[in-house]
Structure formats: structure tokens, C-alpha cells
Specification:
By secondary structure, the chain is α/β, with parallel strands linked by helices. Helices cover 65% and strands 7% of the residues. It folds into 2 domains: 225 residues, Rossmann fold; 248 residues, no CATH class. The protein has 22 helices and 8 strands. The chain binds guanosine-5'-triphosphate and magnesium ion (MG). The site of guanosine-5'-triphosphate has 21 residues, from helix 3.
Length: 602
């Protein structure tokens, strides 16, 4: 991978992790997670980035960490071989990381982007109690005694770990802990299992750091028991093993001042252990690198889990939008479509029936039949005027849609208000409404309604017209229908006439009258059947038009609105937009990072 690509990849990963960290900070329950995200970003910036940019393995880094006042600075002094780091009775004295290196050694400092994050290097010695986002490099002169591990390692005396709240000096410690090839975890007899330092130890081990535990300040005789106790109470509950557990019993002031001369029995085992972990140099660094990438990949779900609640809330929002759409569509169907008669279809039926009457000469026959059907026609008119229910007047379409939309919006408001305490997303939605989200929704509705109207246009008119126009346009079918109807009617008329002629001479007037009555009856039955099938046909098209119109409302109005509303929280530069972007590209970028590391190792 090219250097520019490497830089932009590590930069983006670190930025996304930093964004997630900020996001976690805004939720008090995610404080520890915020610290872990900072640590993960620091692994990218301080370990993986420098490696991909060709930084050599030297120097290795050993970080001395632990709870406040545990004895970190004292142990750092032991590693350096002299009383260099200010140890102080005041707990929380060390406030920024201080690195120690031999006086004349050239320190090959990584120049990669984002190395040590926001920590600025001090260009002159300052007390380690200086509380600022800085680090300093102190030189150890030969007069200070033996160099200890300094030949290979930079020794980092770090601030304490007493809280995960990612303000103040904790991020400074996390920066150096991530950088470290070896971590010395100091725990004192007095406070060996405080919650936050123990959680921090867990993170270090989980992320594959080489951790040497250094138990301090116990009575010499109690050392084995303390080690066993610490093992049982703390280390056995960890996700991975520490490299070793060493002890430094309570030191005398003389031993503290000059551990090289006065406490070699405690100092040498620690120094040796660290030396071993630095052998050979390149293997030690590769181990750090592998641990970092391994941790990032295996913990990616865990790292983004600060966004789990947000994703759930976003899904809740989407669900609410979908429910709203269903109700909107349903109201349109209930309040408009089912009551809407589509009068044009009644006219179309009349036209259809007219069309089935014969034109030209056939008119005569049709008129005759019309006369014969009169009793039926009158009876039907009478019944329909008696039985007819007053027309249900349906609300105008737009009015129905607008009130359904208002219902939809009201539902949003109500739900958002009731859920406001459960997740900030709902507050964001409420704020959106205060800032005119409902107006935006209505504007979108108005636009889509116009589109709906244009597309609907004369669709109803056309479908209704098509009912008889289709028949008009296919003369063969029309002729066949007319022919059938006409034939049946002619058969009826002639049949009746024949019946009259035959009945009078044979049976007298009575049956003849019956035969006369038969003619209008049969003509009426044929007419009834024609009307019945015509109606069925028209009704079928009316139903289809309803379904089509419902589909158009969905296509032009409710569906686009649903899509827009679904996306709304994750657009316009909102935090949720960034969240989605981060969640999408984080796994992809991690994969690329692993591939780049694998390629660089070939
Ligand atoms: N007597 C005695 N005092 C010790 C020993 N180890 C540390 N101390 C004292 O305990 C106090 C705290 O030690 P530090 O080494 O400054 O502890 P620290 O972990 O660096 O503390 P902070 O940087 O303030 O978090 C100092 O006054 C040390 O002199 C020890 O073994 N024996
Ligand atoms: Mg200190």
C-alpha cells in the first residue's frame, strides 16, 4: 500500500474511533467504553501507523502503570536504575507521561501522523506534576548509575488510572499504554484491587499486551501470600495471563533513593524480566503489532457497541415511520376509496348497455323490445327509488389525505415525546418538530400530491371509457355480443308471436294471454341478465381502479415520504449520519489495515 493511502487509512480509522469515543462520552454509562475506544485509536496511531510507515523497532517502550500513589514512579526509577522520576506521597502526583532515555542515545521517534495523539512534546524538563496534554523525554546521564533497561527500552512513568472519565490525564496514560511493548502494572498492598485499575489491567491483557505485574509495599514475609492472593482475586479473573508477578516489598528511604545499590535483589528480577521480553527487538515489536491488530479485529463489535442503543433507537424510528405509512394508506382506503363511487363508471355502464342495442334497422327491434321490457323497467325504477339509500358523500380526496397526514405527524410527536427519556434520538426528533419538521413533511406531501394528481390525471376517466371503447374498437366482439343478444330477443319475440298464433286456435284465448305475457317476461329476463353481467364487468373495473389508485397514492405519496422520513435522522450532517458512516466503514477499514500489515510483513 502506498504511503499516502496508509496515512489516510490510519487517519480515518483513528478519527472514527475518536468519534465513537466522543459519542460514548456523551452517555455516562459508556465511560469505560470511551476509555477503551481512546486506547484502540491509540493502538492505530502509535503502533500500527508507525509500523506501516516503516518505523524501525527501536526503541521499545515499557510503560509503568497502576492506581494512584501505588508506587509507579518508584518502580520506574528502579527500571532506569536511579532516582529520576519524582515519587511523591501525594497520590496522583504524576500528571503527564515522562519517558526516560540514556543521555546520548539517539531516540528514533516515529514521525507518523497522530503519534501520541494530542500529546505535545515538552522541549524542556518540567515537573511530572504538570497537568497538561504533554509528554517529556528526560535524559539519564551515566552518573545516574547503570542504565537498567534503558539500553533497549524507553521507560515511561505514567499518570495513574483511577477513573475512565476521558477527561484530564487518563487519555495521556492510554496513549502511552497503547504504545507500550511491555507494561509494568504496579499494585500496592494497600489498594491492589480497586475497580478501575483492575478494569484497566483487564483491557491490557485482553488486548494482548505483555504485562509484568509488580506487587509493592507488602512486608517481605507476606510477599508469597500476597502474590497468591492477587493471583486468585485478580489475575485468575482476567481474560489472559500476565507474563510474571514480581514483588518489591516495602523499601527503605535509602533503597528508594538508590535502588541500584541498595535494592538489587528486587530490582534485578524486574529488569531481567523486561530484558527478556525485549529479545530480540524485532520479534518484540512484531508481537506488539500482532496483538494490536488482533485486538482491533476481534473487538470490533465490542468497540462499536457504544452505538448499539443508537441503532436500536434508529430501528425504532424506522418502525414508527412504517407503522405510520400503513395507517396512512389504510385511512385513505377506508375514508376515501371505499366510499368513492367513481360516478364515471355508472355512466360507462349506461354507455355499455346502449352499445349492446342494435343500430340502424335493428333499432326497430330494439324499440319493440324496449316496449316489451317496459313492465320490467318500471318495476326496477320503482324498486330502486324506494330502496335507494342516500348517497354516502365521501370527503374530498385531498382532505382525506391531509387529515391522514396530520394523524401520521401527530403520532410521531406523541411517540417521540413518550420516548424522549429513553434515547437522545427521540429528543432529536422532537427538536426536529420544533424546528419545522412538520412543515417540511407537509411541503413534501404537497409536492408528491401534485405528482400523484398528474399521474392519476384522467386515469379513472380513461379506465371508465375503456369499458365501452374497447368494445367499440373491436367490431367483431361487439357484433358477436349484439348478435347474441339480438338473436335471443328475436327468438323471444318470434317465439311469443308463434305461441300467440298457435295458442288462440288450439287452446282459446286464456293460454294465448299467457303466451302474450311471456314475451315481455322473457325480454325482461334477457335484459336483466345483460345488465347483471354488464354491472359485474363494470364493477370489476371499478375495483381495479380503486386498487390502482391506492397503489398510486403509495407510489407517489406515502412511500417516498416513508423513505425520506426513514433517512431523516441520518441526513443533514446529524450525529446519526456520522454514526452510520462510521459503522459502515469501520469494519472495511479494519480489514484493509490487516491486509496492509500482512503485505508489509511479507
Ligand atoms: N516506604 C516506602 N515508600 C514507598 C515505596 N514505594 C513507594 N513509596 C512511596 O509512596 C509514595 C507514592 O509513590 P510513587 O512512586 O510516587 O507513586 P506513584 O504511583 O507514582 O504515584 P502517582 O504518580 O501520584 O500516582 C511516595 O512517597 C513513595 O516514596 C516503598 O516501597 N516503601
Ligand atoms: Mg508517579
Amino acid at each position: 500500500m502506498e504511503q499516502a493511502a496508509v496515512r489516510s487509512l490510519t487517519k480515518q480509522l483513528a478519527e472514527d474511533l475518536a468519534w465513537l469515543e466522543q459519542h460514548a462520552c456523551s452517555q455516562p454509562q459508556h465511560a469505560a467504553q470511551a476509555g477503551e475506544l481512546r486506547y484502540a485509536a491509540a493502538l492505530v496511531r502509535n503502533v500500527v501507523g508507525p509500523f506501516l510507515e516503516g518505523q524501525g523497532a527501536a526503541p521499545l517502550h515499557v510503560a509503568v502503570v497502576g492506581g494512584a500513589g501505588a508506587g509507579k514512579s518508584t518502580v520506574a526509577n528502579m527500571l532506569c536504575g536511579a532516582g529520576l522520576a519524582e515519587s511523591n506521597p501525594q497520590a496522583g502526583f504524576t500528571r503527564h507521561p515522562v519517558a526516560y532515555a540514556p543521555i546520548n542515545a539517539a531516540v528514533d521517534w516515529p514521525s507518523s501522523l497522530g503519534f501520541l495523539g494530542s500529546l505535545q512534546r515538552l522541549n524542556k524538563n518540567e515537573p511530572s506534576s504538570l497537568d497538561a496534554d504533554v509528554y517529556q523525554l528526560r535524559r539519564v546521564s551515566p552518573e545516574a548509575g547503570q542504565f537498567g533497561v534503558l539500553d533497549k527500552f524507553l521507560v515511561w512513568d505514567c499518570p495513574d488510572m483511577t477513573t475512565w472519565v476521558a477527561t484530564g490525564y487518563v487519555p495521556r496514560l492510554l496513549e502511552v499504554a497503547a504504545l507500550a511493548d511491555v507494561v509494568v502494572y504496579v499494585a500496592s498492598d494497600e489498594r491492589y484491587n480497586d475497580e478501575v485499575p483492575t478494569q484497566f489491567l483487564n483491557l491490557l491483557l485482553r488486548s494482548g499486551k505483555m504485562v509484568v505485574v509488580c506487587l509493592v509495599k507488602m512486608r517481605e514475609a507476606d510477599a508469597p501470600a500476597f502474590v497468591a492472593h492477587f493471583q486468585r482475586e485478580v489475575l485468575d479473573r482476567m481474560p489472559a495471563r500476565a507474563v510474571a508477578t514480581l514483588t518489591v516489598p516495602q523499601l527503605t528511604p535509602l533503597q528508594i533513593v538508590d535502588p541500584c545499590r541498595n535494592a538489587p535483589e528486587y530490582r534485578v528480577p524486574i529488569v531481567n524480566q523486561i530484558f527478556v521480553l525485549g529479545e530480540p527487538l524485532s520479534v518484540a515489536r512484531q508481537r506488539t503489532l500482532r496483538a494490536a491488530t488482533g485486538y482491533l479485529s476481534s473487538h470490533q463489535q465490542h468497540l462499536v457497541s457504544v452505538a448499539r442503543d443508537d441503532l436500536l433507537a434508529l430501528e425504532g424510528w424506522r418502525q414508527l415511520v412504517r407503522e405510520g405509512q400503513l395507517e396512512f394508506d389504510d385511512r385513505y382506503r377506508r375514508e376515501f376509496l371505499t366510499t368513492e363511487r367513481f360516478r364515471r363508471f355508472d355512466e360507462a355502464l349506461v354507455r355499455l348497455l346502449e352499445l349492446l342495442e342494435l343500430p340502424g334497422v335493428g333499432r326497430f327491434a330494439s324499440l319493440t323490445l324496449g316496449v316489451l321490457r317496459m313492465p320490467y323497467t318500471w318495476t326496477k325504477q320503482l324498486f330502486s327509488s324506494v330502496l335507494a339509500r342516500p348517497d354516502q358523500t365521501s370527503m374530498p380526496e385531498r382532505q382525506v389525505l391531509e387529515s391522514a397526514l396530520s394523524g401520521w405527524i401527530d403520532h410521531f410527536r406523541k411517540e417521540a415525546a413518550s420516548k424522549a427519556a429513553t434515547h437522545p434520538l427521540w429528543q432529536y426528533v422532537l427538536q426536529g418538530f420544533n424546528a419545522g419538521l412538520d412543515t417540511q413533511i407537509k411541503e413534501r406531501f404537497n409536492e408528491s400530491f401534485r405528482g400523484f394528481q398528474i399521474s392519476l390525471g384522467d386515469e379513472v376517466e380513461r379506465t371508465a371509457r375503456a369499458i365501452y371503447e374497447d368494445l367499440e374498437k373491436s367490431p367483431n366482439a361487439l357484433a358477436a355480443f349484439r348478435g347474441t343478444k339480438f338473436t335471443l330477443e328475436v327468438v323471444t319475440i318470434t317465439g311469443s308471436a308463434a305461441a300467440i298464433l298457435l295458442a288462440v286456435p288450439t287452446f282459446g284465448v286464456g293460454p294465448a294471454i299467457a303466451a302474450v305475457a311471456m314475451a315481455p317476461l322473457s325480454a325482461s329476463v334477457i335484459q336483466m341478465l345483460t345488465e347483471f353481467f354488464g354491472k359485474q364487468y363494470v364493477e370489476f373495473h371499478r375495483e381495479q381502479t380503486r386498487a390502482r389508485q391506492q397503489a398510486l397514492v403509495m407510489q407517489y405519496i406515502s412511500q417516498p415520504l416513508t423513505e425520506w422520513l426513514t433517512r431523516w435522522p441520518t441526513t443533514g450532517g446529524s450525529a446519526y449520519e456520522r454514526l452510520q458512516l462510521v459503522l459502515k466503514r469501520f469494519p472495511e477499514n479494519l480489514q484493509q489495515l490487516e491486509a496492509a500489515v500482512a503485505a508489509a510483513n511479507k
